[in-house]
Amino acid sequence: MVNGLPGRKPLLRALIDINGPDYVRVAGAADAIAGRRASLVATPATTHAVTDTMTLAAERGLAVVPRGGGSKIDWGQPPPGVDLLIDTGRLAGIWDHQPEQMVAEVGTGTPVKAVQAALALRGQRLAVDPPSPAATIGGMLAVNESGPLRYRYGSPAEQVNRISYVDTTGIAATSDGEQGKPGIAEVTGVILSANLRLSPLPAARRWVLRTVSNPLRLHELVGQVLAQPVGPSAIEVDLPSPGGPPGTLAVLLEGDQPGVIARADQIATALGPAAEVSRTAPVWWGRYPFGREDVALRVKVPTADLHAAVYALRDAAGTPVPVRGSVGVGNVHAVLPAKLGIDRVEGILDAVRGVLLARGGRCVVIAAPPEMSRDLDMAGRQDLF
User: Fold this and answer.
1) 384 band by pLDDT with thresholds 50, 70 and 90
2) Fewer Cβ atoms within 10 Å of its own Cβ: the N or the C terminal residue of the chain?
């Protein structure tokens, strides 16, 4: 028995027969989800290996969890148990790139950064920028992890033509949005690859930065940005704790250099003399405001009501609450200290959700320390999309 898993030796032998002796092992301390260590780890390299591994797991009644870079493995509701981790590290690479069609088939275990570097050599990119530095294609799609570019290009799920996956019974399938087929949010099992739409790599980028003192002033400034016909690629905000440094509104413009410079100047003029144009992003751009020991909230609300949501969150918490994210689409993250405790966090959530309900918004806990996530009302997978 390994970590409570019966029939270890026959199971290990069967997994080794499928994946090879170097790609099956007993789980270690790092192979945990919400503080619960898995029993075994397998790293398949082919569709056939994944189907056989999942078929075996189904026959043995094993709880299976796929893992890419592991940066979001603890997000959302913890699984009731995990017997087998399927590491997607060998399901990697750009399997088929058709530059003229602006599409590419990419293995689920490929780091997003590696995809971007390869595509850049052909003057193309995947118009996503997930904040997790170690994000893989599969991990990004599994929780629809979006960064600043979501404002212009939509979420990662919206840029997928088709995904290939193996379901929990070991059957290989595809999902392409056709009627009767599951969307990415409904897919269960292991994603193998994704056929993705690409975009041209922009020739120039500029950020327009403007300090902002409070949520109401942010609301006014965003309105001024949206009134300009300049087609920004992203509109982000960083609101640190009240009493600290002022917040910042940042607007990204992309395209050909003359056009970008002209549009950036237009936005800067609209935002007043305190605005500045920069060739580089602010240090907080595309980064989460929370760490592993924080309670991380995701707030979704129409942009016009975002300031009301932030005020409600601060009032309910009775403590400074940092907020950062895509103000242009009304999708931001907020941070609560874990020291508040489960009951206090749940009370804050109830109060904020009451305010958001009337505004068509919602607030969910996407991540929390393991000792809290098992008892908190954590986001379900559908809540992450």
Assistant:
1) confident
2) N
The phi and psi torsions of 154 (rounded to 5 degrees) equal: 85, 180
Q: Topology of domain 204-278, per CATH? A: Alpha-Beta Plaits (3.30.70)
As beta bridge partners, residue 207 has: 252, 278
The CATH code for residues 8-87 is 3.30.43.10
Calculate the CA 380 to chain-centre distance. 14
CATH of domain 294-384: 3.30.70.2740
| Element housing 356 (H / E) | helix 342-357
Query: Which of 190, 183, 143 is CA-nearest to residue 166?
Result: 190
**DSSP annotation string for 167-217:** -TTS-EEEE-S-TTS--GGG--SEEEEEEEE-EEPPSEEEEEEEEE-SHHH
- The hierarchical CATH code for the domain 94-200 is 3.30.465.10
Per-residue pLDDT tens digits for 52-108: 999 999 999 999 999 999 999 999 998 888 999 999 999 999 999 999 999 999 999
Contact 293, 370 (CB under 8 A): no
Partners of 324 in beta bridges: 238, 333
Q: Is 82 in contact with 65 (CB distance < 8 Å)?
A: yes
| Residue that has been written with the tokens 């405790």 in this structure | 341
Hunting for tokens 């603890």 — which residue is that? 74
Closest CA to 86 of 127, 120, 51, 117: 51
327 in the Ramachandran plot: left (φ > 0), alpha (ψ -120 to 50) or beta?
Answer: alpha
Domain borders along the chain are 8-87, 94-200, 204-278, 294-384
Q: Is 107 left (phi over 0), alpha (psi -120 to 50) or beta?
A: beta
Task: Identify whether the C-beta of residue 143 lies closer than 8 Å to the C-beta of residue 72.
Answer: yes
Give tens-digit pLDDT for 231-252: 999 999 999 876 778 899 999 9
User: Over the range 47-74, which residues count as b (16 or more CB within 10 Å of their CB) and which as e?
Assistant: bebbbbbbbbbbeeebebbbbbbbbbbb
Q: Would you say 333 and 287 are in contact if contact means Cβ atoms under 8 Å apart? A: no
Helix (H) or strand (E) holding 343: helix 342-357
- Cβ proximity of 35 and 14 under 8 Å: no
The alpha carbon of 268 is separated from its chain's Cα centroid by a whole number of angstroms, namely 30
